[in-house]
Queue: 2 jobs
Job 1
Amino acid sequence: MADAEIIPIGTRGRAGRGSGRAKPSSASRNLAAKRTTAKPAAKKAARVTSRPRAVPDAIEQVTTEAVPQPAPTDVPPAAPRPATTTSDRGPVAGISPAGWLAMLEAAAREVFGDDWEPRLAEVLALLRRRLAGEYDVDEFGFDPEVTEKLTLALLRPIAEKWFRIEVRGVENIPDEGGALIVSNHSGTVPVDALMTMVAVHDHTGRFLRLLGADLVFRMPFVGEMARRGGATLACNEDAERMLSRGDLVGVWPEGFKGIGKPFKQRYKLQRFGRGGFVSAALRTGVPIVPLSVVGAEEIYPLVGNVPALARLLGVPYVPITPLFPWLGPLGMVPLPSKWLLEFGEPIRTDELDDAAAEDPMLVFNLTDQVRETIQQTLYTLLMKRESVWR
Amino acid sequence: MGRVVLVTGVSRDLGRRFARVLATTEGIDRVIGVDVVPPRGDVGAMSFIRADIRTPVIAKVIAKEDVDTVVHMSVIATPGSAGGRLTMKELNVIGTMQLLAACQKAPSVKHLVVKSTSTVYGASSRDPAMFTEEMQPRRNPRSGFSKDAAEIEGYVRGFARRRPDVRVAVLRLANVVGPHVVSPMTSYFRLPVIPTVLGYDARMQFVHESDLDRVLELAVTSDVEGTYNVAGDGILMLSQAVRRLQRATLPLPGFAVGQLGSVLRQMRLADFSPEQLSFLTFGRGIDTTRMRTELGFEPAYTTEEAFADFAASMPAASRLSGSLTGRAVSSLQDLLPPASEKAGARG
C-alpha cells in the first residue's frame, strides 16, 4: 500500500475545480486541509519546474502532489500526470469514423477473441437467418437453435454459479431413444424444470422436452417461450407422440400441488396425479427415469398465499415468500440454495405388454414405485447436503 | 359408362379450378358445377347449372343428370363475400342440409366427398400438439365458421348413417394457400402491416392449392371412405411466416386484435373472425398419418413450400425490403469478408 496514490478531496484552497472562478468557493476552502507553509511552497516549486503552464489554472486537475512519501519510490517523481485538456466538449464529435471502427474492432476482439472475424460473421449469418424466418421448428413448435444458443446459454450460469447444481446418476439417462424422466416439483416457480433441462442437455447433449400444465400455454409470453423451448401440453396424446418419436420427455406429476406447497411441507411428495405418465410410458414401452431434486424447495420459500387474488387472476396461487412482495422485484431473485440432482435407475416398461397400460392396478403400483423411489432418494440427498446453502 | 360428378360452390376460385381439373380426369364423363352465381373465368369442360343448394331445385338437378358423385365444396369461410354472417350461415348449414336431403332421395348417388376444414378442431391452450381424426375439439365452437363446419360434419355423419351404401369421404384441410386463393388467411397475410397477438405465437400448417385439387380428385376417384386430415408436411410458426414475407408486424393484445379485426372487416380489407383470432393466438396442428397410410395421398408441397409459393405471388411493391434490423445486419455482413474465404486463409 506504500505506493498508493492519494487523491485528496477538495482543491486545497486554490481555485475550485470546474467552478470557472479564480477564487475558490467557501465550501472548497473549508475542505482544504490546514497546511504548514513549507509544503505548498515546495509543491509549487516542483510544479513550475516540471512542466510549462499551458492551460489555465481553473481546469487544471490536481492529482499528484507532494504528499510526504514514506520512502523514495521507484516511480520517477518527475513524471506527474499530464493536465487534462479538453478542446471539444461535444458528446461524440471528437471521434473520427476510423476511431469508431477501431473501437468496434476492439470490442469484437474482446467478445469473440482473436478469430473474431469469422465468428462475428457466423453470428451475423445466424441473425440474418433468424430475421428471414429461415429455420425449422418441429410439430410442437420446438426451436432447437434458439433453445441451444440463447435459452440454455442464459440459464447455464444460473445453474452453475447460482445454484451450483451437482448432478448424479447421469448414466441412467439413455443416450438415445425415448425415455420419461419423472421428477419431484417444488419451488413456487418452475425453476426446477428449467434447471433440469440445462443439466440434462449439458450432461447428455440431449434436449429435454417438458410437459407443462395448460396454464403455461394460456399465459402470454410464457406459453410462447415454453413451446419454443420444446415444451408441450401435459396430456397423454402429446406425451405418447413425443415418446414414440424417441424424445427425452420430462414430467412433474405433482403439478401445482407440488410446486405450490407451503414451505413447511418441503420435500414431502404430493399425490402423483392419476398416473397418466405411467400409462404413457407403458404404451410406448420407454423406461421411466426417476429424478430427485434437492434445493429447489428453498429458492422461494412459500409462506403464504392470497387465494382471493389468485382466483381473480385465474392462477392456482399467489405466492408470498419472506422476500416477495415486500422487496418488490428484488424479492423475485431466487435464494442461492445448493442443488443436488440425482437420476435414479431406470424402470423398464418394455417387458410389459400393451394390455398393461389398461390395467389400473399395475399403473397405480408403478406410480407408487416411482414415487417411493424419488421420496427415498430425496431423504438420502438431504442427508448428504451440508446445509441449505452449501 | 363414366361417372357424373356434381360439384357445389363453383363460383369461387377454388371450386371452379377443381371442377375444371376434374372434367379432364379419365373415367369421369361429366362434371356439373352448381352455384347461385355463375363462375367468373374459364370453366373448361364443366357444365354449369345455376341452382341454389338451399332450395329443393338441387334434388331435381341430381335426379335429372343422374349424378353418382357429389363433391360438396360450398362451405364459405368469409361472411363478407357471402353478404353477411346470416347469409353465410344459411348457405353453409341450410345448403348442406338440402344437398344431403337431395342425395338421400337420389338412388343414383354412390359417392359423397365433403371438403371440410381443420377449423372443426378449434384452437385453444388445452389442445394437444397434433389432432388426429378421432379427437374432439377441447372447446366446442360457439360461433362463426368453425361452428358451421362442425354442424356440417354432423349432418354428413347423419347422412352416412342413413345411407350406408354411399361412400362418404370427409377431408379436413389445413389452411389452403396459393397464388389464387382468397381466404381469411391469405387476406390476413396480404395486409401491409400484419397484426399479431402479443405474447403468443401460433403453429400453422398449409396446403397448396394444387394439392387441394389433387386430394379432392383422389377422394373422388379412389374408393376410400372416412375422415382424413390433409396438410402439408412441417409446421410454420406465425412469426416465422411473417418474417418470410418480410412484412412488418403490429403486436397487439388479444382483445385489440379482435377490435382491429372488426374494423378491418367493415373496411372490407380482411375478414377477421373470432375463430381466426383464436387460431392466430394458439395455432393448431393436425396429424396426417392417416392421409398417407389410408388415403394414400402425398402432398407435393410441404407447408414451407406452399407458403413460399404464396409469398412469391405477392406483389413485390408491397413487400418491404426487410426490417431495419435486417438491413443493418446485412450491411454489417457486407463489411466483413466472407466466412468461407477467411476459414480457407486460416486453414
Job 2
Amino acid sequence: MELRPGLKLKSAVCDTEVIVVSTAGGDIDITCGGAAMVTPADGRGDGVPADGLANGTLLGKRYCDDAGSVEVLCTKPGDGSVGIGQASLSLKEAKPLPASD
Amino acid sequence: MNILMLLDMAVSGFGERTAVGTSESGLTYEQLMQRAAAAGHMFSATDSERVGLLDVSSPAVLVALFGSAYAGQPFVPLNYRLADADLKSLAERTAPAVVVVGDGNGPRVAHVDGIEAHQRDEWLQRLDAGPTLAPGAWPDDEQDIAVLLYTSGTTGAPKAAVLRHRNLVGYILGSVEFMGAGEDEATLVSVPPYHVAGLAAILSSVYAGRRIVQLPNFDADEWIDLVVAQGITHAMVVPTMLARIVEQLQARSIELPTLRALSYGGGRMPLPVIEAALDLLPHTNFVNAYGLTETSSTVSLLGPDDHRAAIASNDPTIRRRLSSVGQPLPALDVSIRDDEGTELPAGSPGEVWVRGDQVAGEYLAQGSKLTADGWFPTNDGGEVDTDGYLYVTGRLDDVIVRGGENVSPGEIEDVILSHPAVQDVAVIGIPSDQWGEAIAAVVVGGADATELQALVADQLRSSRSPDRIVYRDELPYNETGKLLRRVLRSELAELGDS
C-alpha cells in the first residue's frame, strides 16, 4: 500500500487502529496480526492475529522499523502486532520533552 | 487528521480524568467530548462558517475549540481587550459566525452583520442535554483550517494566522507523550485564549492527560493562590507575569512545593528575573520555550538541566545559555540564513528559518509565506552556537541600522539591564541626520546616563552605546507581555539624537 503521513489504517483481524506519522515513501506491505491493514471504510474480516504476531498494540504508542521506512501511532489498541509483511515493528521509545505550554 | 483525534484518544485512554476545572466540579474528557459533539451540532445547524470566542479563559474555550472542529469550522478566538472599533473590524472579518461571548462582551459584537452571539454560561448549559453529532463523525481533511489567530498587530493591522489541523496535530504528536502526565498533575493556564500558547496548552494537556486550571485575568497574587489551592504542578507564563510573580513570592515569602515545572516564553526574559525565579523556586524545573503563532507554538526549548548547569557555572559560554532558547524540537529543522536565504555556519547571526509539520507560516489574505522547499522565514534574528543552542535576538524589523552597522536592541538591553539600578529598558532606533538611525535607550530606573553609556561601550563597543537615554516610569507592554516598540518609536521620533 502507498502510505502517507496522516493516513488512517485499521487491522483486518483485531481492534487495532493506527495513523501513519512518517514514511520514507514507496509501496509498503503494512500488516497487523499478519494480515494486510485496511482503510477505515473497509469492513473487518473474521480472522484472528497469526501466532507470533499477536503481541498487541498500546494506545498512544508509536511503532517503527529499523530501516525508518514507516512510523505509526496507535489510536486504538488491539491484539495484533503491527508489522511490515511478517516482521513486527518495534515499540519506539522516545525521550519525553519537558512541557512547554 | 483532526484535533478531535487527540481528544478521542484521551477519552479512550483516560476518559474519566478531569480535563478542565477542579477535580470536584470540572469536566472530564468524556464530558468534554459530549459537549463538543453538542456544540458541533449547534454550529452546524446555523449559517455560521466560523466559530468566534470573545471571552476570557473558561471551560467554554475547550468546548468551542473542539466543537468547531466537530462542525468543520475554524475556531477564531478574539482579543477582548481590543478597542471597540478594532474588535468590530475583526468581527466583520469573522462573520458569518456564531460567537461565544463572556459577560459584558455580547453588545460589542451582537450588532455586526452575520454575528450570532451566545452568552457563554447559557450556551454551555444548553449543551448539557442538547442533540449531538454522531460519535467520530467529524470531518477528516487534514488541510482543513482548525484555528485562525489574529496576530497582535504590534507593527500594523492584525493578520489572521492560519493553523490547519495537520499543523496542530503535528505539533502535539511531535512534542507531547500520550498520557505522559500522572493523575495528580494539573497545569495553570494564565495566557488568554487568543494567544497561541493558550491554545497549545489546551491541546498538549488533553493529549498528556493533565488537568487544566484556568486563571482568566492574570494577577500574580491570584496565580500564587491558585497554585497552592489547586496543587498546580505545571504552568506557563510570559516574562512580565514571571516578573510580578517573583516580586510577590519575595514579598509574601511563600514557597510553591507542588510546582514541578514552569515554562516561560512569548518575549525576552530579563536575566535578573529568571535568576531570581531559579533562586526562589529551587525545586521547580524551568523551561524556556521559543515559538511563534505561525509555528503552532514551541519551536525550541531550553530544558531544566540546561538551566541548572547555566546558573551553577562560571564558564561564560555555559552561563550565557540562560539567555538562549535552547535546542530545536526533534520534529523540526531550524536554520540560520542570510538576506539571500543562504545557510550560515554556527556562530553567525542571521534570520531564523524553521521547517516541519507544525509550521504553518500562512495568513488568510496574504497566503503562504513558506519557501518552495517548506521553510518559514520567521523575521526573527538569531544565531546557533557550536553546541546547537539557539539565541534569538529579536524581530528583524526592530534592528537598528546605525551608520550602516546592524545593531540588535536585545544585546544592548541585556547590558543595560545588568545595571542594578535599572528595572526595565527598551532600545529603539530614532531618526538621525548623522547616522541614518541613532540608538535610543528608554530606561526605567535611576541609573546615570553617562554611566550606562560607558557600561555598553565597555561590554560591547562604543558604536553600540546609546546616543540618547530617556527615562520613563514604565514601558508600554500589551497584555501578553509584548513590548510595544512602535509606541516608543513614535514618542521619541521627534527627539532626534542631539
